[in-house]
Structure formats: C-alpha cells, structure tokens
Amino acid sequence: MPPQLPPPLPPLREVIAAHGLQASKALGQNFLLDEQLLDRIAAIPGSLRGERVFEVGPGPGGLTRALLRAGAQVTAVERDRRCLPALAELADAFPGQLRVIEGDALRIDPQAECGGPAHIVANLPYNVGTALLIGWLESDVWPPWWKSATLMFQAEVADRIVARPDTDDFGRLAVLAQWRCSARVAMKVHRSAFTPPPKVMSAVVHLLPDDAPAGVDVKLLGRLTAAAFGQRRKMLRQSLKAVPGAVHALAALGIDESRRAETLSVDDFVGLARVLGESAL
C-alpha cells in the first residue's frame, strides 16, 4: 500500500486566530509559523517514522504537526491551557500519534510519560530552556532515556553549548554538554521567523549522547564548574576554594592554579572531577 498522505490542515495563522492565541511573555512563548522551516527542524534527528518524540511547549502545534507528518509518536507537554483545544484538533487529525499532557515540563518524568527511549525535539520556551537541558544532562543514569535532542534556543545560549575553551562563551553549559554529548549548531533561525519576533536571533542545537567518561560523578562535576565559572575572572586557586580538595587536584594533574576557568578543556574538568571522586573514596 502507498504511504498514507497527511490530512490537510489549516494554516497556523488561522489556528492561532480561531483560538484567540497570543504568545505569552510570561511563558517565554514565540510561535514559529513557517511550515517548511518546521519540517526542516523535524528532519534534523533523522527519520522519525515510528519513533517516540518528546516535545516541550508545543503552543499552537506548529512543530508538532511537522513531527506528526514525519510519522513520529509524539508526547507533548504544554502548561498553557489556552493551547489545548488546538492541540486536541491535531490529535484528532493524526489518530493515535499525539498525546498531550497539561503540565510543567520541569516537574514531570519524561521517560515515564514517553514509555521508552525517545528523541527530544522542541522549540523550548526561553525562560526554562537552559534549566531543562541541564536537568537532562545531569541525569544520574547514562546513557540517558533520550536518543537525541534537537532544541531551539536563543543564539547566545546555543553558542554557549558548543563553545570551545579560551572563548568568552565557554563555561559550565559547554562542559556539561560536551563531556557527555556530541553537540553542534544544526541551524540558525532569524528572529523574523517567529510571531511575535523576539529581540534576539535563535539557533537549533542537536545533541547526541556519548558514553560518559568512567569514574566521574556528575554532581561533583557540576559543583566544580559552578564554582570555577561563578568567579570566572579569578584564578582557579581562588574560584575553586569552595570545593574541598580541588586546589590539590589541580596540582595532581599539573594544572597551573593561576589559570582561569575558561582556559581549561572539558577533559581537564572531567579529570579534576575524577581525581576528587577518587580522593573521597
């Protein structure tokens, strides 16, 4: 049998108008309406036919319909109940493919809701995007429940995720992302693509989980990076004082304690966390 064609859907502008939806600043909403662009974002993880997908903040369902057209089984979390009727119409148009949960993505268990390994694909609300990513990266269980993450951020946040050492953007987010994942900017998105247009440019980051380095405690690495980059203008001997044993760990690894945090590599931070973890045993 030939593949079933997706049902015809009204333009997103009509959906927004019909349901009286206005993007909420308080919820960090900016709606994407360009369906070709949305299809390109949905294609970044590769074929999604029959794959589970977890989406945060679908709003009126622009990216959701692109994921459904790609054949994904989508679990979407939306805290703005104004958007639920529009999403219910999408669920009716794609029977059995879409489940919508009304709630806060910071408070739910995605693995339990998705029922198994899934791809994360989301135009993340600006006000919670970084917190969600850090939570997914700092999981005690690795490899994680997610197969890949395709996430829209403000361009400056995307730059921080993929930043290299010795740059202004290199910091805690880069270390946490890159020690466990391969991370790249997959697409830049102009502010004019959104309704309403945000004040900043955006970018889509694609992350693929790697094997985590053995013998490294994620909470300890988090404390190290928080301390080091919390006072990034100071030398490591000063910024790492708050982490017991950290200055001695620098000496054990032959790292000059007069250096600043942004000059260390991801491997340097991982090595520090490993030495500290071993000394605590």
Structure description:
By secondary structure, the protein is an alpha/beta fold. α2 crosses α3 (62-69). The chain has helices at residues 12-18, 35-43, 62-69, 84-93, 110-114, 129-137, 155-162, 172-180, 218-230, 236-239, 246-252, 266-279; strands at 31-32, 52-56, 73-78, 98-102, 118-123, 146-154, 181-189, 194-195, 202-209. It has a seven-stranded mixed sheet with strand order 4-3-2-5-6-9-7. A two-stranded antiparallel sheet has the order 1-8. It is built from twelve helices and nine strands. It folds into two domains: 12-209, Rossmann fold (3-Layer(aba) Sandwich), CATH 3.40.50.150; 218-279, Orthogonal Bundle (Helicase, Ruva Protein, domain 3), CATH 1.10.8.100.
Short summary of the structure?
By secondary structure, this protein is an alpha/beta fold. The protein has twelve helices and nine strands.
Fourth-level CATH superfamily of the largest domain: Vaccinia Virus protein VP39
Largest sheet: 7 strands, mixed
Beta-strand percent range: 15-25%
- With strands numbered from the N-terminus, the spatial order across the biggest sheet is 4-3-2-5-6-9-7
Helix content: 25-40%
Number of DSSP-assigned strands? 9
Low-confidence stretches: none
CATH architecture of the largest domain: 3-Layer(aba) Sandwich
Rg from Cα:
21 Å
List keywords for this structure.
Helicase, Ruva Protein, domain 3, 7-stranded mixed sheet, 281 residues, alpha/beta, 12 helices, 2 domains, Rossmann fold, two-stranded antiparallel ribbon
What's the arrangement of secondary structure elements?
Elements: H1 12-18, E1 31-32, H2 35-43, E2 52-56, H3 62-69, E3 73-78, H4 84-93, E4 98-102, H5 110-114, E5 118-123, H6 129-137, E6 146-154, H7 155-162, H8 172-180, E7 181-189, E8 194-195, E9 202-209, H9 218-230, H10 236-239, H11 246-252, H12 266-279
Parallel strand pairs: 2-3, 2-5, 3-4, 5-6
Antiparallel strand pairs: 1-8, 6-9, 7-9
Helix pairs in contact: 2-3, 8-12, 9-12
